[in-house]
């Protein structure tokens, strides 16, 4: 390399035309071959030699057969730059940041090394998050390893069983709310989707068929994966099953149409949600009591902790509303959508609030949630917010109750003071600052049942959370109104 570069420089300085032909330029010459401070040639040049680690700059002229050396380099070590007027190279330089000057090996390393380091860091971060997500998705599936031979056998013959048989077999033994995971996945893969019966922010609900029986399939959108995981986790809680809690069948993560779908399979109720039911149906006072009592029985079962080896933690719903309550064929209700629920065990004094960034429904938020004074480390605080929301659901039911031949059209709570899709600030102003509550018509007081419901509502809406009724106290009050001959047995 050194020999080649020296040869170029030597030739540049030694070949000086002897005659002054047309087109020759007078150039500055300060190289080792210069006999004077000037030379004559076709081009004047400046050269930088960096072959031994030291930068040297020389000036001279090129004859016509060496002009191809202009603007060239040898491995970035020898760089030349030419001009074509007399003495033009006297002030001609090759700055270090000249765009025509190729980068040296050291310069290239200084640029590439930081770029490679940043790329590797980003790659490691991406791999870390992929690994976390993969482990998160596998948390449920790892429980498959805990299944014994009996579960494996029953999963293999699940096609010969009915849904009722399976649930009776597994859930009456205290094993939990749902089927063993392997059986859940087997059932999920045998379901045929028939029609979409609802859509929401979480995704879609479909009516499906499994061995001739209707089931509801809640398909979560990928952005709401946390809700799917949380519902699956809570529905598999021991002793959760109750006639006023939506019956859970199975949960599965399945791949369809080249995408991952998150399924939650539950009992199907053709009457739909209480929100839909009240818009198309009116009820008599006894019917309103039946709806209210069944809801509070489900809420009490959630709130209570059952102690023992086959116990159950206390659970607060956190998003109770008429859209999250379903109406069964017998006109009783069951509570659904446990994606925001929190769990608490007195034994370990551990509050499990899950890992879901989604918040509840603004229209049903309690004052302490809206003004952000709620004690998030206290399980009792979450129970108080459920009671507030239950009072609003009671109001929705009462509006659709026929009293003395009169009934009002369905309206959501606070319909007359906030927009159809209220903001957090809208609700905060109405509930916390103005301390408004839904209006209770005078004619409700002419009926014993509605009068009691109205009194309960008011005691659910106290500004102070601790002053509100408990779910258990509400249940006892409503049970006293429920005569022995009514359709709903006391819970």
UniProtKB/TrEMBL annotation:
Q: Determine if Phosphoprotein is one of this entry's keywords.
A: no
Membrane topology label:
Single-pass type I membrane protein
Please state every residue range assigned to the domain named GS. Answer: 161-190
Is the Transferase keyword given for this protein?
yes
**Which keywords fit this entry according to its UniProt record?**
ATP-binding, Glycoprotein, Kinase, Magnesium, Manganese, Membrane, Metal-binding, Nucleotide-binding, Receptor, Serine/threonine-protein kinase, Signal, Transferase, Transmembrane, Transmembrane helix
Cofactors per UniProt?
A: Mn(2+); Mg(2+)
Known EC number(s)?
2.7.11.30
| Annotated transmembrane regions | 110-130
User: Locate the Protein kinase domain: which residues?
Assistant: 191-481
Entry-linked Pfam families: PK_Tyr_Ser-Thr (PF07714), TGF_beta_GS (PF08515)
A Gene Ontology annotation in the biological process aspect, one of them, is:
angiogenesis
Subcellular location field: Membrane
- Annotated InterPro entries: GS_dom (IPR003605), Kinase-like_dom_sf (IPR011009), Prot_kinase_dom (IPR000719), Protein_kinase_ATP_BS (IPR017441), Ser-Thr/Tyr_kinase_cat_dom (IPR001245), Ser/Thr_kinase_AS (IPR008271), Snake_toxin-like_sf (IPR045860), TGFB_receptor (IPR000333)
GO CC annotations, alphabetized:
BMP receptor complex
- Residues recorded as binding ATP, renumbered to this chain, are 218
Catalytic reaction list: L-threonyl-[receptor-protein] + ATP = O-phospho-L-threonyl-[receptor-protein] + ADP + H(+); L-seryl-[receptor-protein] + ATP = O-phospho-L-seryl-[receptor-protein] + ADP + H(+)
Spell out the SMART domains in the cross-references. Answer: GS (SM00467), S_TKc (SM00220)
Under which main EC class is this enzyme filed? Answer: transferase
GO molecular function terms attached to this record? ATP binding; metal ion binding; transmembrane receptor protein serine/threonine kinase activity
The residue range of the signal peptide is: 1-21
- Entry similarity comment: Belongs to the protein kinase superfamily. TKL Ser/Thr protein kinase family. TGFB receptor subfamily.
Protein name per its UniProtKB record: receptor protein serine/threonine kinase
- Gene this protein is translated from: ACVRL1
